[in-house]
């Protein structure tokens, strides 16, 4: 929540035709309202998608290609924080939940997109990552582990896909005020 909408808004400001995805139609509608209220009339496709389901990712890619004929860029910004606790008390199910979205879900969508980019002769894939992988923060171990795994997968994808004209990069984001950071600050003030 927060960053994905901001990235869609900025892409619209740059004139991109957009296919946006989120698990709920409400999130997609909110993003569309924000884009339209900024006076941006770019082509916009909304597809409710749970990226932990490979079939839904494939349907998103197919709908995008049907609507726009191609996919020039994929920005993966899905987010599951996992559970917040010291590693020594870790709820490993929270770690699994974070991995399911942050790593495996992102890979589901990426792998569904790669054949389209190969066929069209290139594209760009950006994985939104986190500085927590580089500067540990108490209670963030599971989330950081999922994003560190994504960073490794991204490096390997870049090596394997570069000769097809597909650039694959990570953007290591810092703190951005929005619902996840607000939640974390609220949680930490009581500890």
What is this structure's SSE topology?
Elements: H1 3-13, E1 18-22, H2 25-37, E2 44-48, H3 54-68, E3 73-76, H4 92-120, E4 123-130, H5 141-161, E5 166-173, H6 179-189
Parallel strand pairs: 1-2, 3-4, 4-5
Helix pairs in contact: 1-2, 3-4, 4-5
Strand order within the widest beta sheet: 3-4-5
- Multimeric state of these chains? single chain
- What's the count of strands? 5
Stretches with pLDDT under 50, minimum 5 residues? none
Outline type = globular
Please report the number of helical segments: 6
C-alpha Rg (nearest Å): 17 Å
Which range does the strand content fall in?
15-25%
Mean pLDDT figure: 93
Structural class: alpha/beta
Distance between the termini: 24 Å
Order of helices and strands: HEHEHEHEHEH
Bin the helical content. Answer: 40-55%
Largest sheet: 3 strands, parallel
Describe this protein's structure.
The protein is of the alpha/beta class and 191 residues long. Helix content is 52%, strand content 16%. It has helices spanning 3-13, 25-37, 54-68, 92-120, 141-161, 179-189; strands at 18-22, 44-48, 73-76, 123-130, 166-173. Helix 3 (54-68) packs parallel to helix 4 (92-120) and helix 4 (92-120) packs parallel to helix 5 (141-161). The model has no long low-confidence stretch (mean pLDDT 93).
